[in-house]
Amino acid sequence: MKSLKLYILSFIALGLASCNDFIDVPPTGVVDGDLAFSQPEKMVNAAYASLGGCWFDCPLNLWPYGDLSSDDCLKGGSGETDTGYHPMEIWSSLTSTPGELDALWYRLYCNISRCNRALVALQESGVSALGEATAKQRIGEVHFLRGHNYFKLLTLFRQIPWVDEEVFKASSQEQTRNDEFTYEQLFQKVINEFELAYNALPMEVEDGGGRANKVAAAAYLAKCYLTIAWGDGYEATDGVNFINNEYMKKVEEYTKVVMNSQYDYLPDFGDIFLPEYKNSSESVFAVQTSQYTEDNTQFGRANWSNVLNGCWGMWSCGWDFHKPSQDLVNAYKTKNGLPLFDDYDKTDDYPVNGVASAQKWDPRLFHTVGMPSFPYKYEAEYMMTTDNSRTPKTYGYYTSLKEVPQRSGGETFEGSWQAFAMNDYVFRYTDVMLMRAEALIELGQLEDARNIINDIRRRAANSIEKHIEYAKDFCEIAEYPASDFDSKEKARTRLRWERRLEMAMESSRYFDLRRWGIASTVLNAYFAKEKNAKYGDTSYGKYYQDAHYTAGKNEFYPIPYNQMYYVPGLYVQNKNYN
Known about the structure:
Elements: E1 3-5, H1 19-23, E2 30-32, H2 33-37, H3 40-49, H4 63-66, E3 73-76, H5 86-90, H6 99-130, H7 132-157, H8 165-170, H9 183-200, H10 214-229, H11 245-259, E4 283-287, H12 292-295, E5 321-324, H13 326-331, E6 333-335, E7 338-339, E8 360-361, H14 364-368, E9 369-370, E10 375-376, E11 379-383, H15 392-395, E12 399-400, E13 424-428, H16 429-442, H17 446-461, H18 488-503, H19 509-515, H20 519-530, E14 533-535, E15 538-540, H21 561-566
Antiparallel strand pairs: 1-2, 3-5, 4-13, 6-7, 6-8, 9-12, 10-11, 14-15
C-alpha cells in the first residue's frame, strides 16, 4: 500500500536523456499510500467527488437505461448509430457488447473503490484525525455513497460481484465472483449499507446540500424495500401476486421519516428544475454541480451526464438527445381535469401556441416537454420551432426541459461540448411521497394514498401563473374524488399514472415498469403505436418496427462483454443473454 493512484492524469512526453533519467522522475498524480490513508477527510471528499465522475458514455443519472428504454422517450441525435444507445430503446438487438455498458460498470466500480479506500482511511486514522463524532458521521456517509453505487449496479445488472473494503485490503477483486450472492442477498447487503448510514448520520447537515444525512438514507432504504417488495426483478415472479407486505411496511416506515423531516414540496413545480432552486426543500439528496462563478474554477463543476441533451439550435452545441415520445405527450391529456387512462392514445395530439383546442392538458406537460411554438423553458425570447430538431423524421420535434437551465443563463461549459450546472436529483421529496403512496395502496390505506396524490396534483394546478401563464388556456387539472380510490386496482392505476406524469424524463420510468411486472405489456404496445407517430405531416419513430421486449431476458442489462472475459470464467452472464 506504498502508493495509491488517486487521479489519472495526462502524460506529457518530455525530452529525457536516457531511460534511467525517465524512471527516476517521480510519477505525476501518485501520492504515497501512508500519507493518503492518514488523511481520511480528503479520502471521503474523493468518494463524494466520484458522484459527478460522468460523461455521455457513462451517465450516472442512468437516463439511457431508465428513460430511453421506456415509453417516455426516444434516443435522439443524428441517427440510430449515433452512440451505442440504440439497442437500449428497441431491446431486440441488445447484447453485452456496447461500450457504454462497459464504461458504466467500470465507472461505478471505480466509485466503489474510492469508497473502500475512504473506509480504510477512516478505520486507520478517522478518530485520531477527525475525532470520534466526525469519524462516525463520515463512516456513515461513505456507507451511503457505497450503497448508492451498488444500488445502481444491482438495478442495472442484477448479478454483480460484491467488492468491499475487506476484498480491497486482500486484493482479491479478481477472485470475487458475481454469483456468490443471490439477488435478494445482494439487496440485503445494499440495505445494510443504508442502515449503517441511517444509524450514524444526523437528520440535518449544514453543508449547503451536498452531504448525505439520515433522511437521505431513509429515502434509499424505502427505495430498496419497495424494489424487492414486488418480487425478484423478473416478470414471471414480479407484480401484484408476489407482493411482500412486510417490505411494504418498511417503505411506509422509512418514508414517514422523510415526510416528518425538514423537506417538503416546493410550491411551484417549475422551480424544481431551475438551478437557482437546486438545493430547495424538494431536494432530499442530489449530485451537486456549480458554475465557475460559484466555485472560482475555470469551468465550474458541470453535469456531464446530460452533455448530449441540449436542444438543437438553441444552445451553442445542443446534440438533441433524450427526446420525449408522443406517447408521453398523450399521457398528459385530461378530461374534466383527470387523465384519460384507457383513451389517452386513441389519437396523437399536441398543443399549438395561439391555436384554441377543446383538448386540455396537465400543466406539467409544459414544464417537462419542449414543443414547437412555445417558449423554451419559459422564456419568450427563445421560442422553439420545428428547426430545433436535429433529425425530425427519425426522432420527432419534442425536446426535454427538466435537465437544462433557461437559455438566458447560458452554459457552464461552452465549446465543442456544452454542459450545465444542473444538479441531478437522487431523491426529491415528491418522489419519496409517491413511493409512500404506492406502499400505502398495497397495505390497504387507500385514502391516505389519495391524499398524497392529490397534494401533488394540487401543486401542479398551482404551477401555471409563475412560469407558464402563456399555456393557461391549455391547462386543466383536478383532484381525484374518493370514488377513484375505492379499490386497490383503481388506486394502482392512478398512482402509476401520477408517477409517470410527475417523474417523466427523470430516469425512473423503465425501472417502475419492471418493478410492477408490466414492462413487456407496456413496452411492446408502445412499440406498435410509436412506430406510426406523427407531428403534423412528419412521421417518425419508424425504427420501432424492429423493437421487441422479451420478458425473462430483458428485465436486466447483460453483464458487459469486457467484464465477462477480463478474467474468463469468473462471472456468469444474466439469463438468456449470450
